[in-house]
Design goal:
Largest sheet: 5 strands, antiparallel
Order of helices and strands: EHEEEEEHHEEEEEEEEH
Number of strands: 14
CATH topology of the largest domain: SH3 type barrels
Helix content: 10-25%
Structural class: mainly beta
Number of helices: 4
Bound molecules: zinc ion
Shape: elongated
């Protein structure tokens, strides 16, 4: 079966055939039916290096854990991070110098293993990466290099989590718990809850118990109001 899209480094694949791969079929039988992680797609796209989970491999394999297999024998199970288009700010680790410009090959001992951030994308195939550490290069130390994307392990930059507003608890006479937006001026007395009702803020020192919509006797209107607000924050992120 041919994957629906070209495999990329980081993809998880199911190995269903060794045909066409650079592997001794008799020694490699044990990896059929296993899953592995694509560590590189070779130029031409017909072969991929796949790191196979080596838990308990037969000794005959010599514990080799990375195999060069034909793409036709692999089935994509989970798209790795690189299945998503890289973006500016993503973290990149230099895995190898294979498809990047030949000039970088001479620097591979310095570059491989380095981490950095993508600061520019070029032509859909290359990325300018600002490395955390500079490396010796012709003309002096440098920390910005253009790599082929397939030479990089790319981790999406963590999105800034939108901080939902925090709510304390306020009570009405019927002992219903309402959500009171924090921070409040720390005083006793009625406050306007998320649902619009006036309720008495519970204060213990300067702390109010967090409003928990899953507790008993919580105001459904407050829960709905907070839920809607958090959803809009999430979709804005
Ligand atoms: Zn309420």
């Amino acid at each position: 079966m041919t994957p629906a899209r070209p495999l990329a480094a980081g993809d998880t694949v199911y190995i269903h055939s060794l045909k066409g791969g650079f592997i001794d079929g008799r020694k490699g039988q044990w990896i059929i039916g296993r899953t592995g992680t694509v560590t590189a797609v070779l130029a031409g796209g017909q072969h991929a290096e796949v790191a196979v989970d080596t838990t308990g491999p037969p000794s005959v394999t010599g514990r080799q854990s990375t195999w060069t297999l034909a793409v036709s024998g692999l089935e994509l199970i989970t798209a790795g991070a690189s299945g998503r288009k890289p973006r500016l700010g993503d973290c990149a680790r230099v895995e190898r110098i294979f498809l990047s410009h030949g000039d970088l090959y001479a620097l591979r001992t310095y570059l491989v293993g380095q981490c950095g951030k993508i600061v520019a994308l070029r032509g859909g195939t290359h990325a300018l990466v600002e490395l955390e550490e500079s490396v010796p290069a012709p003309g002096g130390r440098a920390h910005r290099f253009t790599f082929h994307l397939e030479d990089l392990a790319i981790t999406p930059a963590a999105p800034e989590p939108a901080r939902p507003p925090e709510y304390g608890t306020a009570l009405t006479g019927d002992r219903l718990r309402h959500a009171a937006g924090l921070p409040l001026r720390h005083r006793n007395g009625p406050v306007t809850a998320a649902c619009g009702t006036r309720a008495n803020l519970i204060l213990i020192g300067e702390w109010s118990p967090p409003f928990d919509p899953d507790l008993e006797r919580t105001c459904p209107a407050c829960a709905t109001a907070i839920n809607r607000q958090e959803r809009s924050l999430t979709s804005a992120a």
